[in-house]
Amino acid sequence: MPSAWTDDNNNDHPPNHASSPTPAANFLTTEIYNIGAQPGIRSLPPSPERDFLALTWGPVVYRTAYSARSDRLLPVFLRALSYEVQAAIPRRLPGTRKQRHLLETSYACKVFSDETRYAGAEIGAVRRAFHDWKRADLELPLMELPARLRVCLVVDEEVLRALERMMTKEEDGVDTAEEARGGPTQDGSEKGSGEMSYGRCPVIMVEENFPDRRRRDSNPADGEYPGWTQVALSAVVEVLEGMRFGNGLSRFHRSGRIYLGESQWS
């Protein structure tokens, strides 16, 4: 695995300057490199599961909507998710060109799509499935989990309906680009280069902390926070970044509202 700490420029800067940590390097370390060094992960036989854990970063997605419409919309949703993640990398995780390239090329999401098991599943059932996958299939030891193993995404009918409404407005010729993007980029430039962006499309994020040694609350529901919340696609990377080091999802939650990023809710 290439190092996250080294720039791809060969220059004469002092070593502590050239190798100084960046947000991108820190994220690569906590989300990929640290878990790949865990004894329990190193001992796993070669498999797609081990590669997903040790060589990539990105969310675990549970699909609970199954219909002809969802068959059509799910690929659009996954493309939109990938697009918004890639767009957020330079904004949320600045670093060297090499670090940015590593983040872009090592991104991957894992989709659980099984109509028999997940059709119409409630949040609690998805949380249990996520827990069981980590416990029984991955056999993860007690460890400091990366954020993407403490939260999963749920794509249900409401999520796909929201996406479809955005697509319908686009097809009707309504200028929703600014709304769907969630606002202009930080430098004021237009985002998307002609490609429609669905940055404000919501997705459900469910917190499940097993087997993280810092947070033993498998279901962290507390008061108004039910253990899950809705997040705009453009804010997924910000939330994953914010959940590192054992931080919870609750600070991104406002009842009945969607987290849009940068401490803003719908």
Molecular structure report:
With 266 residues, the chain is an alpha/beta fold. It has one domain (15-265). Helix content is 42%, strand content 11%. It has 11 helices and 7 strands. It has helices spanning 15-18, 23-36, 39-42, 48-55, 68-92, 97-106, 115-118, 123-137, 157-171, 177-181, 236-242; strands at 60-63, 110-112, 151-155, 202-207, 228-232, 258-261, 264-265. A 7-stranded mixed sheet has the order 2-1-3-4-5-6-7. Helix 5 packs across helix 9 and helix 5 crosses helix 11 (236-242). The radius of gyration is 19 Å and the shape is globular. Mean pLDDT is 85; it is low at 1-19 and 176-194.
Question: Which class do the helix and strand fractions yield?
Answer: alpha/beta
SSE string, helices as H and strands as E:
HHHHEHHEHHEHHEEHEE
Shape: globular
Q: Which whole number gives the mean pLDDT?
A: 85
Q: Enumerate the spans where pLDDT stays under 50 for 5 or more consecutive residues.
A: 1-19, 176-194
Indicate the radius of gyration in whole angstroms: 19 Å
Query: Largest beta sheet, briefly?
Result: 7 strands, mixed
Could you tell me how far the N terminus lies from the C terminus, measured between alpha carbons in angstroms? Answer: 40 Å
Strand residue percentage? 5-15%
How helix-rich are the residues, as a percent range?
A: 40-55%
Total helices: the number is 11
Query: Within the largest sheet, what's the order of strands?
Result: 2-1-3-4-5-6-7
Task: Domain count, please report it.
Answer: 1
Quantity of strands, as a count: 7
Task: Outline the secondary-structure elements.
Layout: H1 15-18, H2 23-36, H3 39-42, H4 48-55, E1 60-63, H5 68-92, H6 97-106, E2 110-112, H7 115-118, H8 123-137, E3 151-155, H9 157-171, H10 177-181, E4 202-207, E5 228-232, H11 236-242, E6 258-261, E7 264-265
Parallel strand pairs: 1-2, 1-3, 5-6
Antiparallel strand pairs: 3-4, 4-5, 6-7
Helix pairs in contact: 5-9, 5-11
